[in-house]
Amino acid sequence: MSEYIRHDPSGRSAGRVEKKYFTFAEPPNEMVLDSGRRLGPITIAYETLGTLNAERNNVVLVLHALTGDSHVAGYYSETDDKPGWWDNMVGPGKGIDTDKYFVVCSNVLGGCMGSTGPASIDPATGRRYGLNFPMVTISDMVRAQKALIDHLGIERILSMTGGSMGGMQVLQWCIQYPEMVVSAIPLATTMRHSALAIAFNEVARQAIIADPNWNNGNYYYGSKPDLGLSVARMIGHITYLSDEAMRHKFGRRLQDRNDFSFNFEGDFQVESYLHYQGAKFVDRFDANSFLYITKAADYFDLIRQNEKNSAVDAFSKAAARFMVISFTSDWLYPTYQSRDMVKAMKKNGLDVSFCEIEAEWGHDAFLLPNERLDTLIRGFIESADEHF
Amino acid sequence: MNISDNQNMRYDLQIIAAWIRPGSKVIGLGCGEGELLHYLKHHKQVRETGVELLESRVAACINKGLTVIQGDINEEVTDYANDTFDYVVLSQTLQQVYDPLTLVRSMLRIGKKVVVSFPNFGHWHIRLQLLATGHAPITPQLPYEWYETPNIRILSIKDFRSFARKVGFTILKEATINTDREDKGGSYVTLMPNLRATYGIYMISRKN
User: Fold this and answer.
1) Would the ipTM clear 0.90, i.e. be above it?
2) CATH superfamily entry for domain A2-194+302-387
3) What letter would DSSP give residue B139?
4) Using a CB-CB distance cutoff of 8 angstroms, which residues of chain B are in contact with residue A346?
5) Which of A89, A343, B94, B132 has a Cα at 20 to 30 A from A315?
């Protein structure tokens, strides 16, 4: 997702932000995970923007997608060349207005951007967890976020939003802690991955696992599985775009040459783009984290979570006001999946709005500057105020 | 009927608004930019839901703080349980629906009361135009050429009354109105409405 991060041309910015850390679940009070295993201590990296008001009723929680982090907007220092990943949406006067709202964003459990994950030191051994890290689920991630929200002294969240896997966390929050969520905006997301989505994730995982450097997840003290991880990222990027987006962005244009090379150097712009994205990704992301988080996304199944195995029943406990948003060209989380979600919410008598935004950029559309999305989110959060 | 604070709304919507009980639960099918629902929410404290096909209009509704679902009204109504709403409103859309009979039955199922308004094809302007010119009529209420009109189910006030008898629903209220060119103002027509009214507005319910 980082390819889209740009300085906001409007010059508006949330300004300086600081990454903070919250540690909890110290032994013997470890967190019990869905798998039954215990994990502790757990550190969650988070950032906040704006000011929490005295009534503590202006909290907006942002949940990041697969490879995102707590750095949602603003800058760590004046010399940063890039702001946070959703800087076009979060900031003063923006869709999520930091002049009005107290925005919280944390790195997911299992991540590698400051929160406890497979690259963290296992206190039991003094070495990195690697594959000894327990499998975590979307529900476990939400449980850890809830601990952070409690720690911040927040009882109810005015609105929460997230795209893709961030949207899964939104849905999970609304079901797991319904009394805490006033309104929710699941973006470009799904109640469960399709076989197609799982298939792409599995190919990405196998690319990592097939890299000899991966060494059963035990690579922290030697060469990293950079090749596997970069191929995994390349696969991801294909699924985030669309035929139309690729046609416009690259077509069959050649990169830095006028004719074919007649070798395997990568003649086409699209090849060069994927290589670049793959190479850039290995500098910032941990291969084991990628394995764990994609598995958590694949395991996520709101329908299977309840006894009746029905989408309608999944939302029976939810109480939030919802705005579900999908994008026309998103084939990874197609509109029909959002509609199924909306249908289940309707059948529970929930207050739900739904909008399908016309956008050519595929699944990535939710991250790109989009006036329609800004307006929808701004308007919806504003009207959530009266439901607090 | 107090419609005085509401002069900016289309005249037929003013009448519909006056029919809705405060605090009720209302769904507006084909709700456009949510003019009526916004009025009802703020003046009658209704719990509103809109259904609208066009993204830009859906966005306008959400921006007004309304709850609205982007989708096809014929499909969206099927998700609701019986008697989910106090009122189901279909204003000036019946004439654009491919299968009005199924839709009306669905509306009667999900709502205790259904409000329907439509342009009256029996109006004398229309009759005269067809008779005098031989062309498919074009009026302020039905302003399209035959090849571009969304109005595929033209009906008159008489037609709707006999539709009620055939399908077997009860007409609770009827307002036959004559509107000005912008549809902002108008008056009730009681004498020969099928000839003189530009619109028919009905509140209907299932037969008891």
Assistant:
1) yes
2) Alpha/Beta hydrolase fold, catalytic domain (3.40.50.1820)
3) -
4) 69, 79-80
5) A89
